[in-house]
Fold:
Amino acid sequence: MLTANDPNRKSWLNVPLDSDFPIQNIPFGVFIPYEDDATTIGTRIGNTAIDLSALHQYGYLDGLKLPEDVFLQDTLNDFITLGRPTWRAMRNRIAELFDEKNNELRQSEEHCKHILYGLHEVQMLMPVFIQDYTDFYSSREHAENVGTMFRGKENALMPNWLHLPVGYHGRSSSIVISGEPLHRPKGQRKPKDADAPVFGPSQQMDFELEMAFITTDGKALGERIEVQEAEDYIFGMVLFNDWSARDIQAWEYVPLGPFLGKNFGSSISAWVVTLDALEPFRTYSPEQKPAPLDYLKSEGKKTFDIELEVLIKPEGQEESKVCHSNFKYLYWNISQQLAHHTVNGCNVNAGDMMASGTISGPTEDSYGSMLELSWRGSKPVALKGSGSRTFIEDMDTVIMRGHCKKEGIRIGFGEVSAQVLPAL
Ligand code: MN
Structure:
């Protein structure tokens, strides 16, 4: 039972109007209080960070029979390994404790002092140790836009695209948490009409609006996760900015795919929102024609209605919204992605991250990258106030936000934000 999702529940903690984090969300993250040196796993209600290791030490989670140090960790990996029934029981118990009708914790000023922090009193850290990172390419609109630009309209979609969720193995070492700036990468690019490549800072720094899911331990090497059971192996999701250097990418990607144009950095949001919290926002994916092979057949509402937006904030200027998209536009859903990933016997582990691919929608203002929004640099995108962009410039901050909303309940992801610094 997902009692944590009760839409009528209210918390004794303050939740600002239109917060992404009402008591029905209960995401998981990792933080360190500025006045303390102990990293802890936590959750969040409104703008209050809740120290779960302290909550556990004071005995408020005794009924759940959790391993002693499961929250005194630098990452969520051990907690994720405990599996879906435990994640569920945790969210239900937290909802109960912070319900306005519950005084267990509320009445103890001493305990509250050690468990509750203002968000400004803590630093968020990477929520998981990412063992492996995979990036899919699951938005038909994005694949068609990019294909049209690089190969022409007739060959926009490769022959395999409608038959399998295309993906590649990325690099996990350079995935960083929201707020960490990154440097513009240097590399090889071949200017149009030049005979030979040149080396230097990328001239086409771009973002990719994506979301990523995090898995728990899968099956033994050689065994597959079936599409119908895939969600049991998915802990939750984050916002994901898959930074891309388009000029480096265009020169290097044949024949083995993305490499240095992608692996210099990706940014994620700090709080992992569980699939359970997203349950009320389930919806259908686009119709799949031709029907996929049996191992990819997926029925029912297997995706989520998540509103997404991208904003660019030049230094000293206000932010401008450049894109408004939705997670539900994806052609291949997360169950299909995980089923396909493991169909050959490839194993997955707790903390693996699988990103969706750029999430573009049907309209020109819903494209999830500057590559598409500026149509490879040919149509500058106007910013509020003054200026325009074809790609991202030094000192620009790119911000992505996402939330679901239905019948007065809003569940969100907060944001992933990062500033681009000049090349080193
Ligand atoms: Mn990508």
Observations:
- The pocket of manganese (II) ion is lined by residues 135, 208, 210, 242, 357-358 (CB under 6 Å).
- The two ends are 52 Å apart (CA to CA).
- The chain has two domains: 3-125, 133-421.
